[in-house]
Amino acid sequence: MATKKEKSTFKELSISNPRTDAAADLKSGLIELRYYESILSNHVTSTMVLGDTGNTIGQGKNRKDLLNGLPVRGGEPVRIRVLDKNDNELKFVGKDGAFYVNRIKNVLTDTRKTLMQFDLCTKEFIGNEQVRVQKRYSGKISESVKKILKDVLKTNKPQDIEEVANSYNFIGNLKKPFYTLTWLASKSIPSDGAYGKTAGFFFFETKDGYQFKSIDSLIGPTKGGGNADLKYKKFFEFTNLPDTREGFGKILQYNVNRNIDLQEKLVIGAYNARFTFFNPYTFHVNHKDISMDKDQAKGKVVTAGTQLDFVAPEFTQSITRGFSAVLDVGTLPVGKDAEEQVDNWKEKKDEINDRVTDRMIQAVTRYNQIFSISVDIMIDGDFSLKAGDTIYCEFPDLSAQTKRPSKETSGLYLIASLCHKITPSQTYTSLNLIRDSFGAKKGVK
């Protein structure tokens, strides 16, 4: 019977200088490698701490340290291939997939060696500073996202772009690609959601490439998602026993961040808000009210749990925040040329370009609500997990009356961010988990 590995195995950890063709294997000098993903970050990052004895590059009397021997001046590719104890791979190799040296800091020298911290970034992170979104884009936002990634950022990485329900015509105005893509995410409405009741997307990168996902698909199985499909999720539990139940991974440490601030939630309009808008074509002023609690009760808003909050009903009934905007009417009509655009405008002079009444408050409310509950956990290194995945966690009920898991804190959680910490002797994965509601839904266990 084969035994599982107790630590990670590096297949490759190297750096090269494209100008000199010199390269160095970094495995023997590695002290710590950390890899980061987050649904709030449009690129993955990594930090690497190395110990250099001064004999890394060259031979004999010509040996030099890494910084001066390679040399390392910024922009050098770093290739990483590492397996966790279950043979899940973290792989960043090739011209497009490798990390690149962004900066070197915290250089400490003693009589025996030099400690250096390398901050690594992606090729697209560097490229984002070199290009701008210039042209006009029309049609569904999801299609514009694909065009910007391909034609402006020129990335060859895999992409998982969820289709949106709404179209939006805009001009790039020389903004950076990452800024534009994040801006478009806030304007997007999921294609299979309750139109006018829910909105909000995230644009982020994982080890599997770029993701453009709605909040609804991330926290619940919908046709746009898949990460949250119940049959594919992983199970974890916290226990003081040496072994866990079959099918469960072990939570080594956890901390429930009980950040309850009712007044702050009322200020940001987490429960009820009113949107007042002015139509410059008709000169009419109208308003639209949004209530997350009522929409959830009607089944229009997907939630991870059963209750959005335990706040007393009398504090969630009144409108606590107001928004206002001038509708985008008569600008940038659809058409392949100016003549066709004018013809389309004449036919639909009152057509709204940005469906702001159907997405502005809904997106703000959902972005705020999804971070209502936050839990930090640490598990054995698991490279199969990624930001945006949904996992099921069971935490103990602190009551002395029962040994059952807590009904309020146990349930589905979205991985908001993760960090894989790898050293020569051990590997751990730290996860920040979030959810928008309490309680576990039926059928998730």
Would you kindly provide a written description of the structure presented here, covering whatever features stand out?
This protein has 445 residues and is of the alpha+beta class. Among the domains are: 9-124, Thrombin, subunit H (Beta Barrel), CATH 2.40.10; 262-369, no CATH class. Helices cover 16% and strands 33% of the residues. It is built from ten helices and 22 strands. It has helices at 66-69, 94-97, 123-127, 141-152, 177-185, 215-219, 262-268, 292-297, 338-347, 360-369; strands spanning 9-16, 23-25, 30-38, 45-52, 77-83, 89-92, 99-109, 114-121, 136-137, 159-161, 170-171, 201-206, 209-214, 235-237, 248-257, 272-279, 284-291, 322-326, 373-380, 390-394, 411-422, 427-435. Strands 14-15-19-22-21-20 form a six-stranded mixed beta barrel. Helix 4 (141-152) runs antiparallel to helix 5 (177-185). It starts with 8 loop residues before the first strand and ends in a 10-residue tail after the last strand.
In DSSP terms (H or I, runs of 4 or more residues), the helix count works out at 10
Shape: flat
Average pLDDT reading: 85
Q: Give the name of the CATH architecture of the domain at 9-124.
A: Beta Barrel
- Mind describing the biggest β-sheet? 6 strands, mixed, barrel
Strand order of the largest sheet: 14-15-19-22-21-20
Number of strands: 22
Structure classification: alpha+beta
The radius of gyration computed from the alpha-carbon positions, rounded to a whole number of angstroms, is 25 Å
Range of helix content: 10-25%
- Low-confidence blocks of residues: 222-228
